[in-house]
Amino acid sequence: MRKIALRFGLMLAALPIANTAAAASEPTVSDPSVVVRAPTVPVVTDDQNLFESFGGREGLVRIMDDVMERWMANPRTRPFFENSDRTVVKARLVEQFCVIMNGPCTYSGRSMAEVHRGMNVNEGAFFALVEELQRTLNAMDVPFQAQNRLIAALAPMHRDIIDR
Ligand code: HEM
């Protein structure tokens, strides 16, 4: 976690560790061979304004539109997304982030373990994806504290996303 936090340019000591709770809507895993190591929709429970800091659902739609363009422009992330249905991925990401931020949404996608299994995502691709997300959030003037809360909730998901 510390290494992950440092790669995100965050000071773990200064990071407001997200107070998260597994959502009731945690997706079920259909394949019993999939091992889940981290929640897919860990709800940040102690910041009611977080969702508004990201502009609500409309803000999240704008964020996903912007970041998907960045992921497609980045040679580390583009190969993963070029054959995916990016409209669906963006819609699911909006839902996922909305639920994480305690917004009024339901996540209809699969668990992170199941979605990314066998994709051969490495650390470089993971960090590139998060860095592009941070660029989008900066461009959209999302307050740094709010960004940190989201990133702290996402970081543990690397266990289910990176293939070692
Ligand atoms: C914390 C980081 C990440 C989060 C929160 C995340 C979240 C998601 C979500 C919600 C979906 C849609 C799930 C569904 O359709 O059921 C998805 C799909 C996908 N993700 Fe990620 N993801 C992350 C990291 C990555 C990384 C690092 C890569 C590769 C560089 C990646 C590549 C993909 C691809 C290619 C799909 C589409 C899969 C398909 O169409 O079947 N993701 N991700």
Features:
mainly alpha, 164 residues, globular, binds protoporphyrin IX containing FE, 9 helices, 2 strands, Globin-like, 4% strand
Provide a concise account of the structure shown.
The chain has helices at residues 2-7, 50-53, 56-73, 78-81, 86-100, 112-116, 123-139, 144-154, 158-161; strands spanning 20-22, 42-44.
Question: Mind sketching the topology for me?
Answer:
Blueprint: H1 2-7, E1 20-22, E2 42-44, H2 50-53, H3 56-73, H4 78-81, H5 86-100, H6 112-116, H7 123-139, H8 144-154, H9 158-161
Antiparallel strand pairs: 1-2
Helix pairs in contact: 3-5, 3-7
How far is it from the N-terminal to the C-terminal residue, by CA? 16 Å
Rough shape? globular
Number of helices: 9
Classified in CATH, the superfamily of the domain at 57-164 is Globins
The CATH topology assignment of the domain at 57-164 is Globin-like
Question: What is the percentage of strand-forming residues?
Answer: under 5%
Structural write-up:
- The chain has 164 residues and is mostly helical.
- It has a domain at 57-164: Globin-like.
- Helix content is 51%, strand content 4%.
- It has 9 helices and 2 strands, in the order H-E-E-H-H-H-H-H-H-H-H.
- The chain has helices at 2-7, 50-53, 56-73, 78-81, 86-100, 112-116, 123-139, 144-154, 158-161; strands spanning 20-22, 42-44.
- It has a two-stranded antiparallel sheet with strand order 1-2.
- The two termini are 16 Å apart.
- The model has no long low-confidence stretch (mean pLDDT 89).
- Protoporphyrin IX containing FE is lined by residues 77, 80-81, 84-85, 88-89, 92-93, 96, 109-110, 115-116, 121, 125-126, 129, 154, 157, 161.
- Residues 77, 80-81, 84-85, 88-89, 92-93, 96, 109-110, 115-116, 121, 125-126, 129, 154, 157, 161 line the site of protoporphyrin IX containing FE.
